[in-house]
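Morning F.,

Quick status update on the modeling queue. The single chain you submitted on Monday has been processed. Sequence for confirmation:
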Amino acid sequence: MKPAASVILFTTASGAGYGLLFWLGLLAPAGMLPASAWFGIVAAALGLALVTFGLLSSTFHLGHPERAWRAVSQWRSSWLSREGVAALASYPPAGLFALCWLAFGPARPATAAFGALTALTAMATVFCTGQIYASLRTIRQWNDPRVVPLYLLLALFSGAVLAAALGGLWGAGRVAAGFALASGVAAALLKLSYWRAIDRAVPASTIESATGLGRWGRVRPLDPPHTEENYLLREMGFRIARKHADRLRRLAIGLAFFAPLALLASGLALDLALPAVLAVFAAGAGLLIERWLFFAEATHTVTLFYRGG
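Structure tokens below.
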């Protein structure tokens, strides 16, 4: 599949934003993050800004962005529509959570209630995003049971790194850093398992099964269906060389996980905030590469008719 910059930015930025809102909603009322009103304002604003930036960037991938509002009308059958509904539903509790924090502090019952609701709607939105891809049976690399847990873990990890960096600037980011380390290790292991699985998996469809001609033996196309480049080839015929994919995988693992985890661990050992801030940039760069690969390595069944397998 052709990696679209708008969708890559959307899934990476909104995932980090929802992850940050999740940790704020749960950790702040429990006294595990700074109680400062300024911290609450800055952290909540950053989370909502990342979510909004991601959602707005995703509209640029639509043929008619002005009709994006219609997507929420198909929530009974479409995970994309459910994602839109969940995203819209996440704004009111997040806003009320920030206002209650500012007015009453993070430990008050009202703040805790809206914080829990913020965490719930944030993860529900990320779950719907993951299901958009996991539900597509025509793309075997996405139709995998690890895809949704990966989306959730990567959101939790990137959000925790942000919470650790912000909390460290206010002198209380150790708990968030601990959650970032745990979720980062889990996400890295699951990502490696996912790559191993898609490399070893036997394609569910072949040109023989796609054409229904397999009963007569091996099938190969005599001529391509089209003589010129078309939409299907542009969007679904993208291919990345194995050697380039391997290099990018190593770079993604190094930047998204090894570097941030090492920085977070050193920050905890030295009791410094700077390593957590640097971890944010390393994780962000690595996750952009990881998400680019998620699309670039995906193969749609329709390409069987163009390449014969």
